[in-house]
Amino acid sequence: MAWKIAFAFFAVYVCWGMTYLAMRVAVETIPPHLLSGSRFVFAGLVLYLWARSRGEPPPSAVQWRAALVVGGFLLLGGNASVAWAEQRVPSGLAAVLIAVAPIWMVGLEWARGGSRPSKQVIAGLLLGLLGIGLLVSSRANSAARVDLVGAIILVLASGSWAWGSVWSKTAPLPKSPFLATSMEMIGGGLLLLLTAGIAGQFHAFDPSRVTVAAALSWWYLVIFGSLVGFTAYIWLLGATSIAKAGTYAYVNPIVAVFLGWAILHETVTIRMLLAAVVILMGVALVSIDWTTSPVIASRLRARDCPDDC
User: Fold this and answer.
1) Residue/partner pairs of 3-6 with CB below 8 Å, 24 or more apart
2) Which DSSP state fits 147?
3) pLDDT on residue 142
4) How far is the C-alpha of 77 from the C-alpha of 101, rounded, in Å?
5) Which candidate, 307, 15, 35, places its Cα nearest to that of 195?
6) What are the CA-CA distances from residue 10 to residues 13, 233, 256 (Å)?
7) Which contacts of 112-121 are long-range, i.e. CB under 8 A and separated by 24 or more positions?
8) Secondary structure (3-state) at 2
9) Cα separations (Å) of 246 from 32, 97, 161, 234, 297?
10) Is 208 or 230 the better-scoring residue by pLDDT?
11) How confident is the model at residue 186 (pLDDT cuts 50, 70, 90)?
């Protein structure tokens, strides 16, 4: 059991962390919405057929409609926007900006009538905003300057992903997480292909210009980004705590920044590293329940419980 958990964490940490690099390479010769749409429709169909072969009942029209809406927020508003923005923003910085998704989730959940965020969560929100401000206001040399439009799109993309995640908790989706995930990928992928058609990306796409690196990146996104990554994450949700499974949100950027620097030779400045650290600290404050730490829990008990407890 321990090796399975270790393998699943490796898949979520490293496989998802490398998707930013893969998208950065693929969008050089494949239009972003066409890239994301084809990737998710293909992966979704594979996962759907696998889930149905295991005896899952056919989804209802209501479930397909819900999957289409959730997939639209997650993939059209979220993932495809990342692919588009990576035409203007380095892959490592894209991963750092997307790491604010948990901060969006807290705010959106509260806006829907959820519990008021704690002081720890509010501190995390403020740290995340401070980090974003440091990142987009970088005064480094022009080669390392952050594209403002790309940065804004990435922050909005994380918000769309967060809203799709929050709404999916109450959406009328199938009980099987694998079947629901496959339907979301198919629905969102079809919306992406429709958007690609409206934007003229099919007409502009020339298969003969697709590089070997871009083609390999597409296959990586299908196999390791969608099938392996999502499957490992879903399995981890049942095998370990949500807090531990959710640590991918602030581990992925570290992987992406390192790979972008090591492979694509993307510029990394001290100011950018500082901004990344601040953002990740904010995400950690929002995501981690520090009271689950044995040391902190013992201190809390000592504070709240008199000597004769």
Assistant:
1) 4/239, 5/236, 5/239, 5/240
2) P
3) 43
4) 13
5) 35
6) 5, 10, 14
7) 112/166, 120/285, 120/286, 120/290, 121/285, 121/286
8) helix
9) 27, 16, 14, 11, 21
10) 208
11) very high
User: What are the domain boundaries of the chain?
Assistant: 2-304
- Residue written as tokens 């009328």? 172
Question: Quick one: tokens of 66?
Answer: 């819900």
Largest Cα–Cα separation, the chain? 78
Alpha carbons within 13 angstroms on the beta-carbon side of residue 240 total 17
Q: Give how far Cα 13 sits from Cα of 10, 69, 246, 307, Å.
A: 5, 27, 10, 44
pLDDT digits (tens, 9 = 90+) for 89-138: 876 677 777 777 777 777 777 777 766 777 887 887 788 778 767 766 65
Q: Which residue in the block uniquely carries the two structure tokens 């403020």?
A: 126
For 152-187, b/e burial (b = at least 16 CB within 10 A) is: ebbbebbbbbbbbbbbbeebebbebbbbbbbbbbbb
Q: What pLDDT, in 10s, does the model give residues 243-271?
A: 567 677 767 777 777 777 788 777 777 87
For the chain, strand residue ranges (E) read none
Q: Write the DSSP string, 163-220.
A: HHHHHHTTS---S-HHHHHHHHHHHHHHHHHHHHHHTTHHHH--GGG--HHHHHHHHH
What's the residue count for the chain? 309
| Single pTM value for the model | 0.74
- Output the six-digit token pair for 33: 């919405």
Between CA 171 and CA 56 the distance in angstroms is 18
pLDDT confidence band for 294 (50 / 70 / 90):
very low
Residue 288: the pLDDT is: 66
